[in-house]
Amino acid sequence: MDANGLSLAEPGEPDGQSERLLEHLPSTQGQVDQPSFHARQQKGLPRPASYPPARFEDYLQALQRRLFSYEKAPVVNWITYWSRKGKQEEVYLTVEQAMERGKYLDVYNEIVELATALYGWERAYPWLVKAQVEGHGWWQYLSSDDNV
User: Fold this and answer.
1) How far is CA 63 from the centre of its chain?
2) What's the DSSP call for residue 26?
3) Domains of the chain: which residue ranges?
4) pLDDT tens, 56-87?
5) How confident is the model at residue 142 (pLDDT cuts 50, 70, 90)?
6) Whole-structure pTM value
7) I need a labelling partner for 2 at 20 to 30 A (CA). Which of 14, 56, 118, 130 fits?
């Protein structure tokens, strides 16, 4: 456990309730590795492994039942977990569909990475525009420090 009560166990370790995901999304053939991002899953939240891409909506509902408000980290954990399992395209399409239906997920960086690795910059560019709009132009007073 770290100072915040989050488990530092790796997937498959005995803790089983939490997992730390540190590595970057695996790249597809012919693509360079994408930058890494860090995410941790809090105790008591649903495990990404229990919700394959076809059950992403169920995962979001399970998160909603456990969390007081939306948190980005569990969704990033889910994206990372299934991307590492070789399901990058399914993950991308599933998250894309959820966001197109109006779900607020705030995982633009991860979607840009997936779109770039899978399809190239042309398909990633609209996500960058959406990220800028949602992030209020990445203005330091309205955007998170991570996005400025």
Assistant:
1) 13
2) P
3) 20-138
4) 999 999 999 988 788 899 999 999 999 999 99
5) low
6) 0.66
7) 56
**How many angstroms separate the CA atoms of 24 and 44, rounded?**
24
Which class for 12: exposed (0-12), middle (13-18), buried (19 or more C-beta within 10 A)?
exposed
Token pair of 100 as six digits: 């197109």
90 Cβ neighbours under 8 A, 6+ residues apart: 53, 54, 82
CA 21 to CA 16: how far, in whole Å? 13
Contact between 123 and 115 (Cβ < 8 Å): yes
Alpha-carbon torsion, ordered 52, 70, 142, 133, to 10 deg: 40
d(CA 73, CA 27): 21
Nearest to 58 by CA among 78, 84, 38: 78
Token pair recorded at residue 70: 């939306």
What backbone phi and psi angles, to 5 degrees, belong to 43?
A: -60, 145
Residue 104: closest CA among 68, 129, 75: 75
Tokens of 62: 């399970």
Rounded average pLDDT over 96-101? 93
Sequence-distant (6+) residues with CB within 8 A of 129 are: none
For the chain, the distance separating the N- and C-terminal CA atoms, rounded to the nearest angstrom, is 30
